[in-house]
Design brief:
With about 160 residues, the protein is of the alpha/beta class. It has helices at about 15-25, 40-45, 65-70, 95-105, 110-120, 145-159, and strands at about 5, 30-35, 50-55, 80-90, 125, 130-135. Strands 1, 2, 3, 4, 5 and 6 form a six-stranded parallel β-sheet that branches. It binds flavin mononucleotide.
């Protein structure tokens, strides 16, 4: 099974999660972990499992991930299994009830990515997953890299 992980990252947290997922999958399957701006069309060809991850910024993935998604078409995702993740702030870390409400109802990058990939015919293996950072720029909360590794194992088990 060929696995491609496409990620974006501004402060490095999503990159660490992407690499933890890639390292775990790499012990079992061939995997490439690529930052979104270095992905070429030929990288998508022959992929059995496509994993896309982004920081959540303004309830959405980054511009670069949105551009990558827009460039995909249904032939790219024909019989491709997909999974998505993001990094985000933990709701309980947001002091203001008003902002907590806004962030919660605004939603998260992984859900946006998942909806898009499903619309193109990708088969979502597991629900979109969020990994938590402390504050706007990180670092990752304790235990999130291990959780990412376990999530990767779940993916492999489902595929
Ligand atoms: C401009 C901006 C917008 C953000 N919007 C959200 C948001 O809507 N929801 C959320 O949970 N976190 C939000 N965050 C926190 C980011 O999710 C956090 O910076 C990201 O997880 C860090 O990942 P990275 O190190 O890979 O860039 C925002 C951060 C910035 C700087």
């Amino acid at each position: 099974m060929n696995v491609l992980i496409v990620y974006d990252s501004v402060f490095g947290n999503t990159e660490q999660i992407a690499r933890a997922i890639g390292d775990t999958i790499g012990t079992k399957e061939p995997v490439q972990t690529l930052r979104v701006n270095s992905v070429k069309t030929e990288n998508i060809r022959g992929v059995d499992l496509l994993i896309v991850g982004s920081p959540t910024r303004g309830f959405r993935p980054t511009e670069a991930i949105q551009t990558f998604l827009k460039a995909l078409d249904q032939t790219d995702l024909k019989s491709v299994r997909v999974a998505t993740f993001d990094t985000r702030i933990m709701l309980s870390d947001i002091k203001s009830p008003f902002f907590r409400f806004i962030v919660n109802t605004g939603g998260y990058a992984a859900n946006v990515i998942g909806r898009h990939l499903k619309k193109l015919g990708g088969y979502l293996l597991v629900p979109p997953e969020g990994f938590f950072v402390s504050g706007q720029e990180g670092p990752l909360k304790d235990g999130e890299l291990e959780r990412a590794g376990n999530w990767a194992l779940q993916l492999i088990a489902h595929s």
